[in-house]
Amino acid sequence: MEQQEDSAVQRKPSVQPRLYAVRTVAGRELDVALIIEQRVRDENIPIYSIIVPSQIRGYVIVETPAAFHAANAIQGIRYAKGVVPGVLRYDDVERLLKPEAVVETLKPGDVVEIISGPFRGMKAQVVRVLPGKNEVVLNVLEVEYPLQITVPGDSVRPARERGS
Q: What confidence tens digit (pLDDT) does each residue in 69-126 have?
């Protein structure tokens, strides 16, 4: 009886899934991901997840036990260029999925660019940061009179300094 239990416990170890990057034509990442998803369903390819990171153009990330599974899934797809050699670390991909909130990095006096809303494209200076509400109070710099506005934290980004 003990021999049967020991053999049941000593199963073949399962292969830990890894993350692989698939190069694609920029702008066609979602198309490639959807085709891969359909092939995974039809051909029962062991791909556990497909990630299309918005910050990186031209790449799709797949989670699979081996790179050849990813290569089989993209074979013949017009917009897929190939599997990038090497394995991605989970920490690196996690940073792409959980971007740091801009509000947490801002402090009074910082110059930001407004990226949405009626003041889009204008530069402004941070007066106050309200992290609980995810809002920023700004002084718009590109107007003739003092104008103070409150905008959502995802509507601004730190201004890039030219020449430095």
A: 999 999 999 999 999 999 999 988 888 887 667 788 888 999 999 998 898 999 999 9
Listed in order, the ranges of the chain carrying CATH 3.30.70.940 are: 16-97
Q: pTM for the whole thing? A: 0.60
Parallel/antiparallel/unpaired status of strands 135-140 and 18-24: unpaired
Q: What is the pLDDT of residues 12-37, one digit of tens each?
A: 446 789 999 999 999 999 999 999 99
Superfamily classification of domain 16-97? NusG, N-terminal domain (3.30.70.940)
How far, in Å, are 45, 47, 65, 77, 146 from residue 39 at the CA level?
Answer: 7, 10, 16, 11, 58
Do 40 and 24 meet the contact criterion of CB atoms below 8 Å apart? no
